[in-house]
């Protein structure tokens, strides 16, 4: 399997998994999340008949609680029951998929799977950390594994609405309704539990980690994993702060101020308190940060989005890092340094884990090739799956931070076309 991915015609069944093109958070029909999904889908070498396909369950009790998607439809999840030693162990994976940061982009999002359960896939493939095969997911294969679908546009955080546009910003209520349903299905008896998430879901895992711990009995071993959720308040190629501008729109549009960490908002503005770098050190529950140092989504949407690269001088570089000149590579190195610096305090806790590899990738726990496979990326000789397992089960401490690009030859880098 090649470690550098190139986009090609997707296999027809994968079109169902990848879904329709959605909003990029600015209202346009260009969507980096879907581009990444399509690129990643090229790695699926297993035939559909061999994949575990798990059906969608809608949360019927959610409507009476106002816990609805942007368009007012019911939220949902996919659950594959545990067995044997995993019967009372639970893994909750929070789906990612960007944000909507204006009324216009949220209205558009209602027409996609990220804003309406009417448009969600009825079945999803469970791979990587969700796989039910011991040779693909050695530590969690027989757990109760859940994928909670993302349809609120603010990382499961909002609790307001825009009546004039018939928009429901109810991410916090969706989170609560989903947890109540899963607790009733056996999670209240969990001996071990792991809250995980990728991208916007990785941010949600950070935002909800301590809440998750509080839902479960004191005897339950609870930890959290954030995959590709370390979104940095970074300077873009024009000297501005594109992601801060986007996050400010999310916080303002969905009125998130009252939902964010009060510990943070006591000394920082609400937008700053949507950035993980200002939150992770304050989380009490053990957490693992898994991130590519040159996160592919952040390269595309935070560091060099088209809105600030008007001349297009970054287009080739951000699509394929082998086309970057030395000054552009240095810009990426500075971004990596800021990420490494941002996790230093977090990493001092013996309870926390870190795996930051110097790759141009995104969401490495959900993909089989980057989670656990013969040629998976490694740090200190361990795959992502082995590192997360070592940390969760306290087999060893994991503080794995890669040397700068281009030293890591195990990366599965994303190439955009």
UniProtKB/TrEMBL annotation:
GO cellular component, as recorded: plant-type cell wall
Cellular compartments annotated: Secreted, Cell wall
Enzyme class name: hydrolase
Documented EC number(s): 3.1.1.-
Pfam families in the record: PAE
GO biological process, one term: cell wall organization
Signal peptide (from-to): 1-22
Domain of life: Eukaryota
MF terms (GO), sorted A to Z: pectin acetylesterase activity
Keywords: Cell wall, Cell wall biogenesis/degradation, Hydrolase, Secreted, Signal
Functional description taken from the UniProt entry: Hydrolyzes acetyl esters in homogalacturonan regions of pectin. In type I primary cell wall, galacturonic acid residues of pectin can be acetylated at the O-2 and O-3 positions. Decreasing the degree of acetylation of pectin gels in vitro alters their physical properties.
Family under the similarity heading: Belongs to the pectinacetylesterase family.
Protein known as: Pectin acetylesterase
Organism: Arabidopsis thaliana x Arabidopsis arenosa
């Amino acid at each position: 399997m090649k470690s550098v991915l190139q986009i090609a015609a997707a296999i027809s069944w994968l079109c169902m998994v990848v879904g329709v093109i959605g909003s990029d958070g600015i209202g346009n029909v260009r969507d980096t999340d879907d581009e990444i999904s399509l690129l990643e889908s090229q790695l699926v070498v297993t035939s559909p008949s061999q994949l575990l396909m798990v059906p969608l369950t809608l949360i019927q009790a959610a409507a009476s609680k106002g816990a609805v998607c942007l368009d007012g439809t019911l939220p949902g999840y996919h659950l594959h029951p545990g067995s044997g030693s995993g019967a009372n162990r639970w893994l909750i994976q929070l789906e990612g998929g960007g944000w909507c940061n204006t009324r216009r982009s949220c209205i558009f999002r209602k027409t996609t799977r990220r804003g309406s359960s009417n448009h969600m896939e009825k079945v999803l493939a469970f791979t990587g950390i969700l796989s039910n095969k011991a040779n693909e997911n050695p530590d969690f294969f027989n757990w109760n594994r859940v994928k909670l679908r993302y349809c609120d546009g603010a990382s499961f955080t909002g609790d307001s609405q825009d009546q004039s546009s018939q928009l429901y910003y109810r991410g916090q209520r969706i989170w609560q309704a989903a947890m109540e349903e899963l607790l009733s299905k056996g999670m209240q008896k969990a001996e071990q539990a792991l809250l995980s998430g990728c991208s916007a879901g990785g941010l949600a895992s950070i935002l909800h980690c301590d809440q998750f711990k509080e839902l479960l009995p004191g005897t339950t071993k609870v930890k959290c994993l954030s995959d590709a959720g370390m979104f940095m308040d970074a300077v873009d190629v024009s000297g501005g702060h594109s992601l801060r501008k986007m996050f400010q729109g999310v916080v303002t549009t969905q009125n998130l101020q009252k939902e964010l960490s009060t510990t943070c908002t006591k000394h920082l503005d609400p937008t700053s308190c949507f950035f993980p770098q200002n939150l992770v050190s304050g989380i009490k529950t053990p957490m693992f940060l898994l991130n590519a140092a040159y996160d592919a989504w952040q390269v595309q949407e935070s560091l060099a989005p088209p809105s600030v690269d008007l001349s297009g001088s970054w287009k080739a570089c951000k699509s394929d890092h082998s086309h970057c000149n030395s000054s552009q590579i240095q810009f990426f190195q500075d971004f990596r340094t800021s990420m490494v610096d941002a996790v230093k305090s977090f990493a001092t806790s013996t309870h926390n884990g870190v795996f930051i590899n110097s790759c141009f990738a995104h969401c490495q726990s959900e993909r089989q090739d980057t989670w656990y496979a013969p040629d998976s990326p490694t740090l200190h000789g361990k795959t992502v799956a082995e590192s997360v397992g070592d940390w969760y089960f306290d087999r060893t401490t994991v503080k794995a931070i890669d040397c700068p690009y281009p030293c890591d030859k195990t990366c599965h880098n994303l190439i955009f076309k």
